[in-house]
């Protein structure tokens, strides 16, 4: 009478298949985690830029043109809430004495991707 059992080749093939599945699953979890982190940082930037917009709406146009307003709260808030976060305020006069006011936020989202940047523009 012959006993049915798994051969060494069958067991080896099953182990290799399980190992490949485990590696694929681990990569999927890592990708999902990095995407969640990236999405969270983008949401934080959107919230912070909304705060900047609200502050700009309350600030006199002359102060914005000359840069004579308090940037410090935004700078410290961005630095605290985003990894390696930076905020840059720029004014540029274009034709007909129109002023282009730009706020750029850049940060490192913790992935291997390049630094992310979001810019907001306002004409004064």
Cα distance spanning the termini: 93 Å
Shape: rod-shaped
Count of the domains: 1
- Output the structural class: alpha+beta
Helix content: 40-55%
Oligomer: single chain
The main sheet comes to: 3 strands, antiparallel
List the uncertain runs: none
| C-alpha Rg (nearest Å) | 26 Å
Number of helices: 3
In terms of DSSP E residues, the strand content is 15-25%
What's the mean pLDDT score?
Answer: 78
Strand order of the largest sheet: 1-2-3
DSSP summary, beta strand count = 3
Order of helices and strands: HHHEEE
Brief synopsis:
The chain is an alpha+beta fold and about 120 residues long. About 55% of the residues lie in helices and about 20% in strands. It has 3 helices and 3 strands, in the order αααβββ.
Task: Give structural notes.
The chain contains three helices and three strands; from the N terminus they run αααβββ. It has a three-stranded antiparallel β-sheet with strand order 1-2-3. The chain starts with 7 loop residues before the first helix and ends with a strand. It has helices at 8-58, 61-66, 72-81, and strands at 86-94, 98-107, 116-123. Helix 1 (8-58) runs antiparallel to helix 3. The protein has 124 residues and is of the alpha+beta class. The chain has one domain.
Q: How would the blueprint of this fold be written?
A:
Elements: H1 8-58, H2 61-66, H3 72-81, E1 86-94, E2 98-107, E3 116-123
Antiparallel strand pairs: 1-2, 2-3
Helix pairs in contact: 1-3
Features:
124 residues, alpha+beta, 3-stranded antiparallel sheet, rod-shaped
């Amino acid at each position: 009478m012959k006993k049915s059992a798994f051969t060494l080749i069958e067991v080896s093939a099953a182990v290799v298949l399980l190992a490949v599945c485990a590696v694929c699953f681990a990569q999927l979890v890592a990708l999902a985690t990095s995407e969640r982190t990236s999405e969270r940082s983008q949401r934080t930037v959107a919230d912070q830029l909304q705060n900047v917009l609200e502050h700009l709406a309350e600030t006199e146009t002359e102060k914005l043109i000359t840069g004579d307003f308090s940037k410090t709260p935004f700078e410290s808030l961005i630095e605290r809430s985003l990894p390696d976060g930076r905020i840059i305020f720029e004014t540029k006069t274009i034709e007909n004495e129109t002023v282009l006011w730009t706020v750029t936020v850049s940060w490192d989202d913790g992935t291997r991707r390049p630094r992310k940047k979001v810019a907001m523009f306002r004409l004064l």
